[in-house]
């Protein structure tokens, strides 16, 4: 899509030629060193997936045990410089990502935390470094290099001990109050267990987007992407918050994806014979598409939040993602284990959250939700999630958090899974 490839240049030119009289982020810059930050983020993840029917091949290990069980430590060093002063500010970002295997084994490998060695074990250690150069004019930032991205149509995943990393150009502009414009072109994407540049095989993806706050309580967004030889996606969001009092509010959140798959599926074959008797067979592909949307209504009452959500998929196949980032599914019923995104699937969710700060225990929270989905051919899947999290509020261990996640998944076609995770995170701000 040529329009998307040129969008980064067009936005950069527009930002450079529109100087605003009001104060901007760049005009308030203190300098490259003065505004810099350096953070260390530590995450320990214990993960156990029980497939509930003995050794059934669900593990990718050379000696499957019927369950996967691993523990890993991820250490991230994140440096972000400020911007040099002047009309055009220049800065750099840099990161170092390291994973350390604490516990794994040939029979228990497969939770998605480590690369696999030749003998079927998890790799002991892995590390990678990366960086990006960035430029700022007024309230517009252009960044090129290795980076973490959070766009509804291209979102790097951070569900294991290390995140995915994208390589490319990304521009975000906030020149108009309440309006954020974004555009990017990415040519590589590393998954969470590999250190080489493009382990997910992304050729090229171009993205554009706009988010606008119509009022303090009503916002919307439109985004689009074109992933080379894979698919084109269009995404929309509307979010409306209705406060009734200081203690009560109703939030409505609507998300929708429209995907057109470039490759489609081979539906039939044609055979041709030339004058020399050579026979050639060619598959005829049929265009495929998918539409999936979700609507969630969350009612908050003091420390309590009650949520109901409905999600529905239609089209020629289910919603696909991953080559455009493992986090590219901003839908209500994308939960701990399943995404409820099968072809023609309809799913409902009921959820309850409680914040214990109102009861004298700040930092402690609980959540539970139940989702049930049905699709064609009597397919059903169900998932129950139970979570608890505690964040230390003060002292030397301030911001140290402990989180327990339980998922009980049942599927009448592919089998059952119990997924348990213990996550310990400790962020440290050095600068």
TrEMBL record:
Entry's Gene Ontology molecular function annotations: hydrolase activity; porin activity
EC number(s) reported in the record: 3.4.21.-
Enzyme class: hydrolase
Superkingdom to which the source organism belongs: Bacteria
Alphabetical UniProt keywords: Hydrolase, Signal, Transport
Signal sequence, start to end: 1-23
Family assignment from sequence similarity: Belongs to the outer membrane porin (Opr) (TC 1.B.25) family.
Name of the protein: Outer membrane porin
